[in-house]
What we know:
Order of helices and strands: HEHHEEHH
Amino acid sequence: MYFEMDCPCKGKNLDKMLQPGILMSLYRQDKYGWLIIRDLGKNPMFGGVEPDKTGVYRYLKKMEASGYLTSRLENAQDKDVSRRVYSITEKGKACLGNWQVTLRSYAASIAELVSNMEETAGVTEIFQKL
Length: 130
């Protein structure tokens, strides 16, 4: 049974997943911010919903200040508008590699925790009573 409540257990507080999501989005290709946001929205961690645009741009700025990204202004074709294009740095690529190791470890730990929950009579009884 699934509860309808505003609880961290529903996975709404996954803002820490912005960093690996952004790094992965930029790994193969430099992108404008709105393309990064679109990629994040397609990521299963965000449930098909694009994250808050303001928060993503704030995070991009923070990641650039930390040396994980660089950015440059490019003129949009057929327009008098400049857009910021983001690129991953070597430090960002190393960080993405660290995320891969960390997330694999988390996935194994989470799988074990879920398995333990399923084997625990107390947790099963709680769900049966609801």
